[in-house]
C-alpha cells in the first residue's frame, strides 16, 4: 500500500497519496471548509505538489468533515479583506480565481468528491474538476441572493454552462438548496451515490482513469474545454493539431501501440477496454 499524508504548515489543506491517487482535502472542517484568503493562497502550493509528484496520477478534491465547501468565508474573505481596501480585495480575488483556474487546467485528471455542503464560491472548484461525484446527502446552493449579492467568482457562468437557462435562473433567484440526486439530474455532477459508497465509487472512477494513457487524457480533457467556444470548423482543425501534438509528446507512442495490440495481437477491443500500457 503506497500511502502517505502531507499537510500544509497551517493545515488548511491535506494530501494523502494512495496507489496513484492524491486525495486533496480542504481542511477547515470547523468552518465547513469555507475558503478564506489563507486557504486560497496555499492551494497554489497544493496544486504544485500534486502536479509534480509521480505518486499522483489522479487528483480527488474533497473536504474534511461534513462539507465539501460552504463557499467563501464571509468574515475573512469579504468583511476583513474589504476593510483593507481595493488592492487587498484584488489580491484575494487573484488567489482564489487563480487556483480554480489552475485546477481546471491541471496536468492530471481531477475528480470532485462532494461529501457535503457545496455553496456559492465552491461551485468554482467543483466546476474546475474534470469529473464530479456527489453524495445523495450533499446539499448544493447559490445562497448569494439571500445576503444581497449576485453569484460571482464564476458561479453564474458555471450554472449557465452546466444547467438550462430556466434551471439556472431558478436557483440563482431563489437561493433554494438541492440534494446530490437533483444536482446529478441537473448536470452539476456526473452522478450521486449514498454517502457510505462515495469514496468507493470515486476510487473506481480514478482507477479507470489510471489505466489510460496520461498524455492522451490531458489532451482530451483540454481539447473538450477549448472546443466549447469554437465553431465546428475551428474545432475540427484544432483537434487535428492537438492530436499531432499529443503524438509528439507521448514518448511511449501509445497511439501506435494501441493500434498494434488491436490489429496485430487482437488482445483487446477499444470499445470494451484500454490497451496495455
TrEMBL record:
The keyword Nucleotidyltransferase does not apply. The keyword Lyase applies. Keywords: Lyase. GO terms for biological process: isoprenoid catabolic process. SUPFAM superfamilies: ClpP/crotonase. CDD domains: crotonase-like. GO terms for molecular function: lyase activity. Pfam families: ECH_1. Belongs to the enoyl-CoA hydratase/isomerase family. This is p-hydroxycinnamoyl CoA hydratase/lyase.
